[in-house]
Amino acid sequence: MRVEYDNIIQVERLKRRISAPQIHRANGYAVRLEDQWFWFPGLVPAYTFGRAGRMSIQVGTWELVEAATEARYDRKLGRDVLSLYVLDAAGVQNDDATDRALIRGFADGVNPRSSHWSP
């Protein structure tokens, strides 16, 4: 299932996470591959996804930033409105050592029987 965000909003700071009947917001990281955004709850899986995606011939640019994903129920529309709040700051910086550490960390947390990653 491909999730399309209704709104991509740049913010100076992220609001705290919340889970209530009408709204759910979680903080984490977002990866932009070309013009498509993907949200992850942690830096390690987000970084690894972005790095692997960038290896595709179809991807010329990628970006990794702190972000929050939000689903807020809209009565008029009769559905959840999905928003991605992107921290308006420089993306996550890395060097060769950080690159290797993040990718190794991802491999160490992979469980072949689950779609989840465990640090």
How would you explain this protein's 3D organization?
- The chain is α+β, with helices and mostly antiparallel strands and 119 residues long.
- The chain has one domain (7-109).
- Helices cover 22% and strands 39% of the residues.
- The chain has helices spanning 43-54, 96-109; strands at residues 7-11, 18-20, 23-33, 36-40, 62-74, 79-87.
- Strands 1, 2, 3, 4, 5 and 6 form a six-stranded mixed beta sheet that branches.
- A hairpin with a 4-residue loop joins strand 5 (62-74) and strand 6.
- The mean pLDDT is 90.
- How many strands, which pairing sense, and closed or not: the largest β-sheet? 6 strands, mixed
- Computed over alpha carbons, the radius of gyration is 15 Å
Approximately what portion of the residues adopt beta-strand conformation? 35-45%
Tally the helices.
2
In the residues, how many domains can be counted? 1
- Average pLDDT figure: 90
Helix/strand structural class:
alpha+beta
Note the run of SSEs as H and E.
EEEEHEEH
Shape: globular
How far apart the termini lie comes to 25 Å
The tally of strands reads: 6
Weakly predicted, low-confidence segments: none
Name the helicity range: 10-25%
Summarize the structure.
By secondary structure, the protein is an alpha+beta fold. It has helices at residues 43-54, 96-109, and strands at residues 7-11, 18-20, 23-33, 36-40, 62-74, 79-87.
